[in-house]
Write a structure and sequence with these properties.
mainly beta
Length: 250
């Protein structure tokens, strides 16, 4: 890591309204292995009917789906990279890990994460439900999501991050990369339900191909302070992207 500095409040474009001068980044080491039982996963993970589920607790993926339709991959990003399932040039094609201290730290931690790949022409009718639970106070959870919807495919993904308790004092970094191919249709719902004592910082980027459609919904229901940057690039004629955000202060 190059050791990029923390951005200064009112000293850097985009950070005019986020004062993190009291944040001691080094006081939140990367989280360790997760324990589903200790985190109370059964009580806090919503149960969506007929959803394809994947669950991560701290740095450990503790539930993976099986019996997936042909042409559909849903697994941890860590496992996908190890198994050679990630298309060439991804992750990292959309988000530069060298210019932001939070992105840099996230990219250096290769554990867990979410990888979804929908092959060309596949129309997935069941929603994908990914739940990431941060359970250890005083740590940083580096969560990364990579979704690739190939040409003519269709999918819906709910990607939620939660704290195990209402008073968890922790930090989360997040990187999301959404690749929507030509003529593909992706609905992506990102839900942030962290405790009101937690920080969250992230960069989320989408690229939409010719005649592709992205319906992106961002829901924020927690965290004490943070900043998540979202951006979409329309990469071909007829590309369409819609971003809807809803936030609750308490």
């Amino acid at each position: 890591m190059s050791g990029a500095p923390l951005p200064e409040f009112k000293g850097r474009a985009g950070w005019e309204f986020t004062d993190i001068s009291k944040l001691d980044f080094s006081a939140y080491p990367d989280t360790g292995e997760g324990d589903a039982g200790a985190a109370g996963v059964e009580k806090i993970v919503p149960d969506f009917d007929d959803a394809i589920r994947i669950v991560q607790v701290d740095g450990t993926t503790i539930e993976l789906p099986d019996g997936l339709p042909e042409g559909v991959t849903v697994t941890s990003l860590e496992k996908a990279i190890a198994d050679g399932l990630v298309p060439a040039g991804k992750p990292g094609q959309l988000v530069d890990s060298t210019k932001d201290v939070f992105v840099e730290r996230n990219a250096a931690d290769g554990r867990g994460g979410l990888f979804v790949h929908i092959a060309k022409g596949v129309q997935l009718e069941r929603p994908i439900q990914a739940t990431i639970v941060q359970a250890t106070s005083g740590t940083t959870l580096n969560q990364r999501t990579l979704i690739v919807a190939e040409e003519g495919s269709k999918a819906e993904v709910w990607d939620q991050v939660l704290s195990s308790t209402d008073d968890l004092d922790a930090l989360m970094t997040t990187i999301v990369e959404l690749h929507v191919g030509d003529g593909a249709n992706l609905r992506y719902v990102g839900v942030q339900g962290l405790s009101e004592k937690s920080y969250v910082f992230g960069t989320q980027q989408a690229e939409i191909g010719r005649d592709g459609t992205l319906d992106w919904v961002a829901l924020g229901f927690g965290a004490a302070k943070g900043r998540v940057r979202m951006a979409s690039r329309l990469a071909g004629p007829g590309a369409h992207g819609k971003v809807t955000g809803a936030y609750a202060s308490r």
